[in-house]
Amino acid sequence: MSDFDVVVIGGGIAGVSVAYELSGTHRVAVVEAEAHLAFHSTGRSAAMFIPNYGYGPARPLTVASYRFFADPPEGLADGPLLSPRGVLWVARPDQVSSLGEIARAGEATGSRVFELSAEEAREKVPVLRLEVTGGAVWEPDPQDLDVAAIHQAYVRGLRANGGTVLTSSPVRSLARRGDGWRVEAGDATLTCRIVVNAAGAWGDVVASLAGLEPVGLQPMRRTAFMVAGDPAWATWPMVVHAAHEYYFKPDGPQILCSPADETPSEPRDARPDPLDVALAIERINEATTLDIRSVRSEWAGLRTFAPDRNLVVGPDPAEPAFFWSVGQGGTGIQAAPATAELLAAMVRGDSVPSHIEETGLDLEELSPARPALGRSRLASR
Ligand SMILES: Cc1cc2nc3c(=O)[nH]c(=O)nc-3n(C[C@H](O)[C@H](O)[C@H](O)COP(=O)(O)OP(=O)(O)OC[C@H]3O[C@@H](n4cnc5c(N)ncnc54)[C@H](O)[C@@H]3O)c2cc1C
């Protein structure tokens, strides 16, 4: 039996980031079901930082996360966590109206945006087919994230502060004991005052272990794969179809591709469907002269959304010693630092950190008690 102030359930980016943020002031343990941390969504992303992407509060949280990526605390990272990439949003001739919306949304997020002709877009990515490119929006600010280094930085900081990490420890029971919790995880039994639910696609499953009402999480499978590239293409931006039919970006000597699919799934170890890979190849070959014929590696991961697609961050209204950090969707890496800083402030009872407040973030939009989650028992309280 081990006693902690806080037990964080889930060793993906959401779990390790908030565990680190709390470890300076609290005795913290992270419990992870798998033998390796970051085995699920966190290890399967496209590794992008795009402020002009994501729903509602994910955008200000992404903007507020920049300072951690650009200047992480001393001793956490061995090298840069960001590197230049940029995003080129492209549309077919019949879809150019959507480019204006993307440009306006980018400006609202504070990003630099430039509307380009098809010819100008092809100067940036010479494989684009002019006849099917109606125009583009160029954003120079998005960057590549070194996700493994970011995750490792948090684990390193957590351990340096005396935090505990337990792998192969699925939480199977969560019971109220006095003014705290008794957590059974794998072979271990832990006691703590506060539980943080950072279980990704399994967030509602973990809540049900504590007897709490789910928030209605829906995991969505997304497919990605690598094809042969060319080191000479390494400086191309990421190309994202304006209606989210595909994206691709250089990744060293390879190209990372996706059909930008969203297929509802149970919480599970997601696997790619060959049809989704084939669809992406067809769409990218139609839009470019890449002439993709074979795939080097493929994978899938889950992007998990609440019903209104906003993150769910904060204390459960029925159980204030149970904090949620779920529903990260497709922005869980890029928004992780500020989300963790915010949640740690909530756990400590501190005010919202000033660099997050400055973004105009509306805490109600994140609340586990918000009406959009339709939690019946809570609505009657
Ligand atoms: C193809 C793809 C591309 C993406 N691209 C980007 C991108 O470019 N930028 C970006 O910011 N985001 C991107 N995302 C989204 C991002 O990967 C997720 O939002 C993020 O990883 C979610 O992190 P998490 O910690 O919440 O979840 P996870 O990484 O899934 O971690 C949750 C952990 O909880 C553990 N767990 C569950 N139940 C229990 C239990 N009972 N006991 C103990 N542990 C438990 C799981 O084993 C898991 O390790 C992408 C996702 C995909 C799939």
Task: Write structural notes for this entry.
The strands form 4 sheets. Strands 6, 7, 8, 15, 16, 17, 18, 19 and 20 form a 9-stranded mixed beta sheet that branches. The chain has a 6-stranded mixed beta sheet with strand order 10-3-2-14-22-21, with helices on both faces. The chain has a 4-stranded mixed beta sheet with strand order 1-13-12-11, with no helix packed on it. Helices cover 26% and strands 28% of the residues. Strand 21 and strand 22 form a beta hairpin. It has 2 domains: 2-71 and 147-217 and 309-375, FAD/NAD(P)-binding domain (3-Layer(bba) Sandwich), CATH 3.50.50.60; 87-141 and 218-305, D-Amino Acid Oxidase, subunit A, domain 2 (D-Amino Acid Oxidase, Chain A, domain 2, 2-Layer Sandwich), CATH 3.30.9. The radius of gyration is 21 Å and the shape is globular. The chain has 10 helices and 22 strands. The chain is α/β, with parallel strands linked by helices and 381 residues long. The mean pLDDT is 96. The protein has helices at residues 13-23, 58-70, 97-108, 118-124, 147-160, 203-209, 274-287, 336-348, 354-357, 376-379, and strands spanning 2-3, 6-9, 28-31, 48-49, 82-84, 87-91, 114-116, 135-139, 143-145, 164-166, 171-177, 180-185, 188-192, 194-197, 218-228, 238-241, 247-251, 254-258, 263-264, 297-305, 312-316, 319-326. The structure holds flavin-adenine dinucleotide. Flavin-adenine dinucleotide (FAD) is lined by residues 9-15, 31-34, 38-42, 44-48, 170-171, 198-202, 206, 222, 224, 258, 301, 303, 328-334.
Which strand-content bin applies to the residues? 25-35%
Low-confidence stretches: none
How many structurally independent domains?
2
Q: Major beta sheet, specifics?
A: 9 strands, mixed
What share of the residues lie within helices? 25-40%
Quickly give the structural class. Answer: alpha/beta
Per the principal axes of the C-alpha atoms, what is the gross shape?
globular
